[in-house]
Amino acid sequence: MAKSSAPTLLQGTLDLLILHSLQRGAMHGYAIAQTIHLLSDEVLKVEEGSLYPALYRLELDGAISAYWGVSENNRKAKYYEITKRGRKLMAEQQETWSRLSDAVQRVLAR
Q1: Burial 54-67 (b: 16+ CB within 10 A, else e)
Q2: Which of 46, 56, 60, 92 could anchor a disulfide with 33, C-beta 3.0 to 4.6 Å?
Q3: 3-state secondary structure of 74
């Protein structure tokens, strides 16, 4: 049986996943992508072309802040952390996601 391709994320879902990942503490971009991949049981794979524009957008919005540091392998890396605004935004997005996924489940169940 052929393995199906990774599902695409609905618009806004990536922001929610990034904010949720950053609740664990500050992380650089690669660590955020790996966290999402591992927490999804390796179903979701976030590509750089999607991740970094989302991080930039979240930083501009004030949902995350960033600083330069050194990664585990002694390389310069930009670290991101969730802000108070980001926590509020994440709670709102989680509520929206729950309503949306419940609605989809109701449709599929009929």
Answers
A1: bbeebbeeebbbbe
A2: 46
A3: coil
pLDDT in tens, 23-53: 999 999 999 999 999 999 999 999 999 999 9
DSSP state of 63: S
Letter string b/e over residues 79-95, b meaning 16 or more CB atoms within 10 A of that residue's CB: bbebbeebeebbeebee
Q: What is the pTM of this model?
A: 0.88
| Whether the Cβ atoms of residue 67 and residue 78 lie closer than 8 Å to each other | yes
